[in-house]
Every structure is written in C-alpha cells, then in structure tokens.
Amino acid sequence: MAGNSQRRGAIRKEGTKKGPQVGSGGQRRRGLEGRGATPPASARPHHPAGKRAAKVARSAQGRQKKTDETEVVLGRNPVVECLRAGVPATALWVMLGAESDERLTESVQRAADAGIAILEVQKHDLDRMSSNGLHQGIALQVPPYEYAHPDDMLATALADSTPAMLVALDNISDPRNLGAIVRSVAAFGGHGVLIPQRRSASVTAVAWRTSAGAAARLRVARATNLTRTLQSWADAGLQVVGLDAGGDTELDQLDATGPTVVVVGSEGKGLSRLVRENCDAIVSIPMAGPTESLNASVAAGVVLAEIARQRRY
C-alpha cells in the first residue's frame, strides 16, 4: 500500500477488531429488534402506579416482620402445595418477568379462584423477604392461625353425642408431626388438638400442608400451661392417657370408650415429668420387631385407630 501504509496501526491485523462475521447476522441486530408490548403501569418501577404497587408489597412485608406468627412461604413447590391444601393465605407475590411454568400458572389460578390478592413486584422486593434469595419468583403470605381456647374446645367435645376424644402434644417441635397428628385426629373422629403456647410447634404453613387441609376442619387450641389444662380436663371427667415407649400399660389393655385425652410426647424427649405425673395411665405400643419406638405422629395414629375401633364395637 502506497503512502503511509507502513505506519503502525495503518493496517488492521486480522482478529484485532470486531467486524461482521459469517453467520453472525450483522452488528447491532439486537438494538434494532422490537422490545415487545409496553408493560402495564403497575409493572413500571418509575411510574406512579408502579411505585404504589411496590409500596403495598413493602408494607405487607413490614407487617410480616412485626409478628413471628405471620409467615411468608417461598418457592414454587411450597406455594402451590399450600394453595392446594387450602391454606388461608392473604397475598400472593409474583416477580415481574418471572419465567412461567405449570406451578406458577396453577398458583396464580388458585389464588385468583380463592380471592387472594395477587401482586406483581420487582425482584428486589422478593429478595428482601428471603434470606438467601431462593424464592423462584413467587411468595405467599400466610396470616396467623386463629387458635381456639382450651375451655371452648373441651365444651364442644363434651357436647357431642360421641365421647370426647382429644389429643394434647408435649415436646412436639416439628410442625410436620403436628400436621400429621391433626390429620389423624380428624380421620378418626377426634374433637381437637391441644398444644403448649411455648416451646412447641405451631400451625405454620408446613403444618397446614402436612395436615392436607384437616387444619381447616379441626380445632387446635393453645394452652398457657399444659399441665394445668390437663388437670382441669381431668376434673371435667376426661381420662388422661400418656403415650410413651416406656409405658406400664400396653395399648391392648387400654379402655378408651369413655371421654379421653391422649398426650403425645416427642420421640426423643418423651413426656415431661409434670405431664407424666398427671396422667391416669402411660400407654406403650407393643412392638413385634426390633424397632424401639415410632415417630410421634405414627404412634398417635396407631393409638387413635385403636380408640376408634373400641368405640365402633
């Protein structure tokens, strides 16, 4: 090349600068493509409607932080399972631009059918609700469960035509066990479940899911002092039966045809000392194999099935 061709940089070396390549489709193609339909006003973060929607989401999150009873369920599988179980949710948050799938579509449809508020929020709003950001673009707010009073639950059980059958839980900390026991009590004709107010599993979204909706049909009461409540129930004529692997009475010997409350302890700690002292009998389930004990919810189901059998004949 004549002239200044020997100057450094006059001739571009091959591969040193971007240019049209074979099959690339040319440059700036993405910039020429359309951006799709204009999103709704509530989906635009700088629009007044979008700011109002974000404010609603933040205020709902603030209400969630004021109490440890309100729960936010995160993730597509947990959310859709809660909605299938009939958990009484108050709000469903869906991230703007979230990739849709069957779970997300079903969640939105079920929430709409149940009259649950559906809010489209930005990703950072959902990030603030979760500690690790694993929300998968969806969240469900579950309000505090409305517990019954122990005296009211007892009065309802005694007023029924069938003998009262209640279950009290001692040292049960796993909400899945609580949900499974609630389901068993409902299945075998029980009247309610009593839990301590402190150091106990509560009716959370996990318990709702495990109960398969039985928590909506069966009353759950909270006792400020479990021992005193059991004493008052014994004074009202109920037989207090403790369930423990080291019990002195086998299940085959139990007569539970009359009003009965079954007290279930955890698999590890069992019954506390004061609760055990206030039981009329400590019942154990005879084992045919080498297994020493059963899971608390499984053991409760076995005992409740036996009580229901006795009352049928």
Automatic annotation (TrEMBL):
Matching CDD domains: SpoU-like_RlmB
A biological process from GO: RNA processing
GO molecular function, one term: RNA methyltransferase activity
GO cellular component, as recorded: cytosol
Domain RNA 2-O ribose methyltransferase substrate binding: 72-148
Alphabetically ordered keywords of this record: Methyltransferase, S-adenosyl-L-methionine, Transferase
SUPFAM superfamilies on file: alpha/beta knot, L30e-like
Stored NCBIfam families: rRNA_methyl_3
Designated name of the protein: Putative tRNA/rRNA methyltransferase
Species assigned in the record: Mycolicibacterium sediminis
